[in-house]
Amino acid sequence: MAKKKESNNTKLPSLLAYEKKLVPSDGYLYGTVWDDNHINDTEPLKITEKAVRGTDSTLQENSKADTEDKFEARITKANLQTVDACMLGVNQDTIVLTFTLKILSGVETPIACNDVAFNDNYYAKVKEYIKKTGCWELAHRYATNIANGRFLWRNRLGAEKVEVYVKADDLEATFSAYDYSLRNFDRYDENLDRLAGKIASALSGETPYLYVEVKAYAKVGFGQEVYPSEELVFSKGKEDKSKILYQSDSIAAMHSQKIGNALRTVDNWYPDYPDKENSPVLAAEVYGAVTTRGRAFRMPNSKQDFYTLFKKYMFGDEPLTNEEEHYVVAVLIRGGVFGESDKKDKKDG
Description:
It contains 8 helices and 20 strands. By secondary structure, it is of the alpha+beta class.
């Protein structure tokens, strides 16, 4: 009889993957007129194309061969562009964003793991976390990010009013988004607690899943610009558009990934956060990377990156702090492939 392979107690399995447990749809954008009861008709917002004549604001090198007149002629040359745009109608002052969200159970079980001993140990540890916390802290933070309208991104900025309507099972609630901070998760109230409780029940496995419908209203002003997701342009010729906005079924839309990123922006547990007023709340990421700032807030040398803490969680003699454990589970809820290759074995093989 073949001997069961022992788990390597210092390395993660070479095959290790987790399914995401927060599954948002794309978000669809509509226009309407603000009404406190939100009963006015909505119209799908469309992407339009503009040809604009701008200036070139990129840094220009002033060649020694340039005369002042030549340099001036070069930098004042018109920058002709074709871009996508999205606007409210002249009789519309409110953006409406709708999406759905599924919260799934089963974070204690990887979708792929080729190490039986690791899998058993992992299952026991996460079940212990669920028993200890009920996934309440993470659920409260996800619920807060629904209530505060973080998923609106730029569409939230400068809005006179923002309200978020949520339906989840028997819960129907409207949240005034500005009552809930983007910087902390200290707010508790009846409706928020009920929503968090339902999310926690799904994450912890008390219920197999939770289906949530979200509709957000942002009063930004008549005819104002709307910000759908922007498509990534890999290569651009002279005749191509320099900005392409996302649309689905001919309706201006936001990527599900962008909505998901907002919902899992829960990490203010990293070392720099308490000391720096300018430090952001991070989406749960392996290295706490924020591409718009060109910085990773959980570098490996800090010993607070996901892999360091995950290995400590699985193999270490000392337990993680509560905050470290919340962060690790938040990344696992995010999902991903976390296997660790054994370079020595590959070389020897």
